[in-house]
């Protein structure tokens, strides 16, 4: 029987050999960075959705943690790759649990990946426009920005709910371009989700970087199609 961890792992891309980035910073005007798994350690989110939330759901409904996991996994699959997946208000209403409060209880697990701050400084010194672009719900975003203080580095922080679509949806990227006015072929996007990179590629973003080490508790998994990095120090050249 597939448990939640196995479900989460099966949703990721098949791991391949590492394709190394090869580009010139002179050709890039705009840098877009995902948050969870890219800038921040995804262990927090994996633990929350796969362990912590099932435990509380099982207590609420007086069922086993295993049964809670199965029920939640089915609910996750129903809204995967949509805005509802990251919508804490949707999940709070659907599950009758206060998800922002539950996230606050374990916010000590929120952490920034190695070399992230150095890379943000590097981009600013290179005079690149710097945007944080995330599917995270605004309440989750607030918790993480308050904990990490990374928001100050960016020209703008954009939630998918502001755009009206998730990053996995093709409609997201033209809407984002209207919002930010970036030139696609001169834009670099770093994200730990290959489907996001694939959709951005279809829109015409010029430089796509896959983050192989999204969680400190899981092994690196390299994209079979896009250049991958373990840490941002590999781009500081």
What does this entry look like structurally?
With 237 residues, the protein is an alpha/beta fold. The chain folds into 2 domains: 4-41 and 111-235, HAD superfamily/HAD-like (Rossmann fold); 44-108, no CATH class. Helix content is 44%, strand content 11%. The chain is built from 11 helices and 6 strands. It has helices at 4-10, 43-61, 65-79, 83-86, 88-95, 99-105, 116-125, 138-148, 160-163, 172-180, 194-203; strands spanning 30-33, 129-134, 156-159, 187-191, 207-211, 228-229. The chain has a 6-stranded parallel sheet, with helices on both faces. β4 (187-191), α11 and β5 form a beta-alpha-beta unit. α2 (43-61) crosses α3. One of its GO terms (cellular component) is cytosol. This is Putative hydrolase of the HAD superfamily.
A few lines on this structure:
One of its GO terms (molecular function) is phosphoglycolate phosphatase activity. With 237 residues, the chain is of the alpha/beta class. The termini are far apart.
Question: Helical element count?
Answer: 11
Query: What is the element string, with H for helices and E for strands?
Result: HEHHHHHHEHEHHEHEE
The CATH architecture category of the largest domain equals: 3-Layer(aba) Sandwich
Strand arrangement across the biggest beta sheet: 3-2-1-4-5-6
Q: Quick one: overall form? A: globular
CATH classification, class level of the largest domain = Alpha Beta
Low-confidence stretches at least 5 residues in length (pLDDT < 50)?
1-12
Do you know the CATH topology of the largest domain?
A: Rossmann fold
Question: In angstroms, what separates the terminal alpha carbons?
Answer: 46 Å
CATH homolog superfamily of the largest domain: HAD superfamily/HAD-like
Largest sheet: 6 strands, parallel
């Amino acid at each position: 029987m597939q448990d939640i961890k196995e479900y989460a792992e099966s949703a990721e891309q098949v791991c391949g050999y590492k394709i190394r980035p090869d580009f010139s910073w002179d050709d890039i005007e705009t840098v877009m960075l995902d948050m969870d798994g890219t800038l921040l350690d995804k262990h927090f989110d994996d633990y929350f959705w796969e362990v912590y939330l099932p435990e509380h759901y099982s207590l609420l409904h007086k069922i086993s943690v295993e049964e809670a996991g199965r029920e939640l996994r089915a609910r996750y699959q129903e809204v995967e790759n949509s805005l509802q997946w990251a919508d804490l208000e949707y999940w709070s209403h659907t599950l009758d649990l206060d998800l922002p409060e539950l996230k606050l209880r374990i916010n000590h697990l929120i952490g920034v990946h190695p070399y992230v701050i150095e890379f943000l400084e590097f981009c600013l010194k290179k005079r690149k426009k710097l945007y944080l672009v995330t599917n995270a719900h605004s309440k989750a975003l607030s918790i993480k920005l308050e904990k990490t203080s990374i928001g100050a580095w960016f020209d703008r922080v954009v939630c998918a709910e502001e755009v009206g679509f998730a990053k996995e949806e093709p409609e997201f990227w033209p809407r984002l371009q209207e919002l930010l006015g970036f030139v696609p072929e001169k834009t670099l996007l770093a994200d730990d989700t290959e489907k996001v990179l694939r959709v951005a590629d279809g829109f015409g973003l010029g430089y796509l970087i896959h983050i192989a080490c999204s969680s400190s508790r899981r092994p690196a998994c390299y994209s079979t199609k896009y250049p991958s990095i373990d840490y941002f120090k590999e781009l500081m050249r």
